Structures are given as C-alpha cells and as structure tokens.
Amino acid sequence: MKTLVIVTHPNIEKSRINKTWMEAIQNQDNVTIHQLYTTYPDQKIDVSKEHELLLAHDRIILQFPFQWYSTPALLKEWFDRVLVGDFGIRSTTFPLRGKQLGVAVSTFGPAESYQPTGYNRYTMEELLKPIQATASNPFIVMTFMTPYILHGVGDVTDEQLAQNAAEDVKYVTKMAVTV
C-alpha cells in the first residue's frame, strides 16, 4: 500500500511535533511526504499535480497542527481546489473511491479540554467531522481512518515525543482502524 502524507504546517522548521513526525516517516517504504507550504509558498496549488499524487497512492494522511478548530488555511484551500470536478464534487468517475483518508493532528490543548465539559466544549471526533464528511461524500467515497491525535504539545517531553513519533509511523504505515 502506498501512502501519501500531506504535511501542512505554516512553519515546519519551527515545529517540534510535526517536524519530528515528518522526519520519523521520511524513510519509510511506500511513503511519500508532500509539504504543502514548502511546495506552494505562493499558495497557488497545482491541481493537476495534486490529482497525480492522489491517484498514485492508496492511503492519504493529512498531517497538521489543529488551529482555531480547523486545518491550516492552505489545507482548506487544497480541499477547495483539488476535490472538485472529477476528483470530488460532481465526479462521475470516482477516482478516490476505496482509498483511505486519515489525519495525524496535534493540539496545544490537553485531551481533557476536548470534551463536552472541557473548555473547548467539543471532542476532537466532533471537530474533525468536516474531514470525515468530506471522505464519505457520495462523490468521493473514501474510507475515513480513526484520527491520530497528540494533545498538549506544549507539555510533551523529548522521550514522549520519540515514543509518539514511533506511534505515528505505525499509524501511517499500518492498516488503521476505520471510523
């Protein structure tokens, strides 16, 4: 199974978590890392290139820091530009059908803050529903994988990060449980 990891971090060089995850998976067999902000510093997405990447892979992992209850802006733009026409809305060929879509996401807030009684008031599963809904859209028909989430990134020790990076590698490279 070939996996495409779309890393969307506005400043990957200053990222402790997402950069470590990316470095941990970069030498894995059958894994392609695609950094949106590095590839498109002008934020002008090459839709044809993105379609080629999607077609060449069986599993797509969206890796990003959770910001203001959503994805970074360029990933939202990616959805809007790439998943249209024959690759999304109004598709008649369904080229993404049967592929897997997962997310590897980091949050600044601790896990307990993403509960109905926490200060964010919603679970991560609820907040990630728009991505899950995109995957299951009748024009896209991808299998949505259980999200991989690291909470409380400001409090993660180096030892915890090393262990977490190994877990991220497993998420990216192994068959994951689907929602």
SSE layout and pairing:
Elements: E1 3-7, H1 17-25, E2 31-35, H2 36-39, H3 47-55, E3 59-65, H4 73-82, E4 100-106, H5 124-127, H6 129-136, E5 143-144, E6 148-150, H7 158-173
In short:
With 179 residues, the protein is α/β, with parallel strands linked by helices.
Walkthrough of the structure:
By secondary structure, the chain is an alpha/beta fold. The mean pLDDT is 93. It contains 7 helices and 6 strands. Strands 1, 2, 3, 4, 5 and 6 form a 6-stranded parallel beta sheet that branches. The radius of gyration is 16 Å and the shape is globular. Helices cover 34% and strands 16% of the residues. α1 (17-25) packs across α7 (158-173).
SSE series: EHEHHEHEHHEEH
What are the low-pLDDT stretches, counting only 5+ consecutive residues below 50?
none
Task: Count every helix, treating DSSP H or I runs of 4 or more residues as helices.
Answer: 7
Span from first to last CA?
19 Å
SS content category: alpha/beta
Helical fraction equals 25-40%
Question: Any idea what the radius of gyration is?
Answer: 16 Å
In oligomeric terms, what are we looking at?
single chain
Output mean pLDDT.
93
Number of strands: 6
Largest sheet: 6 strands, parallel
> What does the overall shape look like?
globular
Beta-strand level of the residues, as a percent range?
15-25%
What attributes does this structure have?
single chain; 179 residues; alpha/beta; 6-stranded parallel beta sheet; 7 helices; 34% helix; globular
